[in-house]
Amino acid sequence: MAPHIIATCKQTRFHLLDDKPAREIDVENLTIAVASPLGEAEDSAKTKTKGKSKAKPEARELISDAHLRLKAGTHYGLVGRNGTGKSTLLRAMADKLVPGIPHLTRIAILQQTDTEAQEGRQAFTHEAQKQRNDERKPVLEYAISTDNYRNEVAGKMNFLAKSFESEDPMQPVIAIRKLRHDEIEKQLFLAQKNANLKSGARGLQARKELKSVEAKLQSSEELLEQDKEEIDAESVKQESQTAAETLQDLQSQFEAMKVIDIEQQARQILLGLGFKEDMLSKPFHTLSGGWRMRCMLASILIQNPDIMILDEPTNFLDLLGVVWLEEYLKRMRDSSQKTIVLVSHDRDFVDSVCEEIIILRDQKLAYFKGNLTAYQKDFEEQKLYWGRMKEAQDRQIAHMEATVRESIKVGKKTNDDNKLRMAKSRQKKLDDRMGVQVSARGGRFKLNRDLAGWHLSSRDEIDVPQDEKGVAIYLPDASELRFPGPLISLEGVNFKYKAATAPVLKEIDLVMHMGDRVGIMGLNGSGKSTLIRLVAGITTPTQGKVSLHSRLKMGYYAQHSIEELQALGQEDPTLTALGLMAKDVAGSLNEGQLRALLSSLGLQGRIVSDVPIRRLSGGQLVRLALARVIWDAPHLLVLDEITTHLDFHTVTALASALSTFNGAILLVSHDRFMVRAVIEGKRDLDHKLDDDFEGAEEESSEEQPRRRVVYVLRAGTLKVQSEGVEQFEKSLVKKVQKMLPAQG
Question: Which part of the chain is the ABC transporter domain (predicted)?
Fold first, then answer.
């Protein structure tokens, strides 16, 4: 059972009415907590000592007394470390759990946990059946059918149309009464919500409106229960006319949605996200998890909500899909008033799409006008500015404190009242007037003008912005190889899945030595994972030769490592990270060594020994999967899409750790920053890397720098990118420009 989200905010008798949709949101004093399901709370209560108190779900605050503010038509990037509550905040917004979000506001959300939520809903028979029916639809139809607003209009229209097709003249009357009743039930929900939120005169008015809606609902129920024979001819005539007018209005609304254009738009979006034409007719339920998420992303993009929420939309896209989505969202920013809130670990993607940044840190929300690069640059400048101001003031304070001590000492010794008065005056200045030396406008601070409140007697202390305490990642050095030679060597490798089919890989030649950095990029379906499995020895080539160093230790991080860990967690609900690692190493490392290894990757304390694997976040699962790869100090790391599920802070830490690894690295990734940093060894000026990052510049003074090469796998062959990631990216941008329709 999923955790329960509790959201509260500032509620006053001046609270806005909840009867109009809004693209703008302004909610003060927002607090969001997550409570464990009641069943788990009861289980945990059994382990405690007996008492009179009943078992209650334990709530953990993720956001406290924050200000949620969204402006219409603005594209926001939401950033924060894994586990700070980004996804929970987005879910609370989408489910209208935040009281300040009007109920009629249309919010469309793509979230990585959607598939888990769908599985959890299987307990409800009606919804489970509807879900199964939807999943049997072809991909194109499924993408179109997920717009709830369009479905609601179409459902009402079809319901009324069928009533007119009936030979019974009473059917339109019954149908319009049923639709009215459903509408009044919605009004009752909103009236109850308003009555609970308001107090004073507005609260009295809201309670009167609630009674009025309750009376309407009672009358509507009586009309629904009325026998056909009791309905007089005049009522039949009037309500049949109302039903006809309502049907005509619904048909006009439906036609205004441009159904034909929507189908064309859906097809275009699906093709842009990587679907082939023949895949559009396949049933949705036959797709793999990654392709399902792409289809769900397409279904969100074709909708016309007030607010669109995208949580890690690039996780299952190749670089072509990422570049296409970048261009699509940039066009949307210029041509529509949709408000978008986006979470992504891809720095280049966030920089390209987002105009403003929302920072979730220390349970608060802060805002910055500009993209992620501009925010990080401003943060560093602010840290330098306030740091220098504080250093100067600390020197001044130390000097004044010494002067005060000396004046008191001399004054008492000589009975000099002037010295004592001077000491008292300087002490008062130390107590009341030291702190921030500039006003909010940037000018010199004046106590009588700029003091924050009448009840305050001194200005604020200088607060130097601090880097968040991030997860540091350290990788062990590779084992000693003992004698030289290539770690792996692929010579003339071809691979076919079936003898009669075309080869997936053709004439692949690849040699790697200690210290080499090789990156492989390419579109989905180009054979990258197949090539990686050949290197890892999981499959064998159809033709050609794969040679390995006789003492080679290889660490292979598979693309589906997280799914494997989740499956293990479901099989054994009590399995912890420490327990799993103990099984993997089979006595080669003791508990202390295992804890040290997991700690070096950011998994510490009770997280590894007490928290089951099934309760770990995506980022924590990535670190655990990496621990399973590096525990025996491999010479070669083969990493297939390792950045999925990581926040960009952790991606930075991982890039820095990989840069110092003395073994070889074969990296498959669509993350441009990761390939530039780890493979090309470029210290990205726009994104801060750790101080211990070792790139190509640090190797320039060495006698034999690392071999660094970026390949693109295209049409089954490896092609060297002499200009690295930038060359591949430029070719994709040209391709995307042809895929997108011309702007009118």
Answer: 47-387, 488-712
Average pLDDT value for residue range 582-597? 90
Question: How far are the Cα atoms of 111, 153, 284, 694 from residue 148, in angstroms, in the given order?
Answer: 17, 9, 18, 51
**What are the counts of helices (DSSP H) followed by strands (DSSP E) for the chain?**
26, 18
Cα separation, 726 vs 679, whole angstroms? 13
- Among 276, 132, 620, 330, smallest CA distance to 294 is for 276
- Pairwise CA distance, residues 294 & 287, whole Å: 10
The most confident of the ranges 233-242, 511-520, 599-608 is 511-520
Neighbours of 115 (CB within 10 A): 13
Q: Where are the alpha helices (DSSP H) in 136-284?
A: 139-145, 148-165, 171-197, 200-225, 233-256, 259-272
Q: CB–CB of 637/661 below 8 Å?
A: yes
**What type of residue is 366?**
A
* Closest by CA position to 655, among listed 617, 599, 697, 695: 695
For residue 612, give the DSSP letter.
Answer: B
* Distance from C-alpha of 114 to C-alpha of 103, rounded to nearest angstrom: 21
The three-class DSSP label of residue 686 is: coil
DSSP symbols for 10-24 = ---TTPPPSSS--S-
Which phi and psi (to 5°) does residue 506 adopt? Answer: -135, 125
3-state secondary structure of 545: strand
What are the tens digits of pLDDT across the range 334-359?
A: 777 789 999 988 888 999 899 999 99
The amino acid at residue 41 is A
